[in-house]
Amino acid sequence: MSEQEKERNQTEETPVKEQAEYTPSVQAEFMREKIKQKPVNKKKLLRRTVITAVMAVVFGLVACFTFLVLEPVISNRLYPEEEPKEVAFPEETPIEEMKPEDMLVTEEDAEPQTPDPVDLEMVDEQIQEVLSQVDREFTLEDYQSLYEELRALTEDAGRAVVTVAGVTSDVDWFNNIYENVASASGVIVANNEKALLILVSAGSLNGADSIEVTFCDQTQVEAELVQKDDNTGLAILSVPLSAISSETMDAIDIAELGSSNTNLLGMPVVALGSPLGTGGSISYGMVTSTGTAIDLPDAAYKKITTDIYGSRNATGILINLKGMVIGIIDNANTSNDMSNLLTAYGVTELKGTIEQMSNNKERAYLGVHGADVPKEATTDTQIDTPAGTYIREIEIDSPAMAAGIQSGDVVTRVGSTEITTYNELLGILRSSSPGDVLTVTLTRQGYEMSVDVTLGNW
Question: Which residues on neighbouring strands pair with residue 169, listed in sequence order?
Answer without folding.
Answer: 179
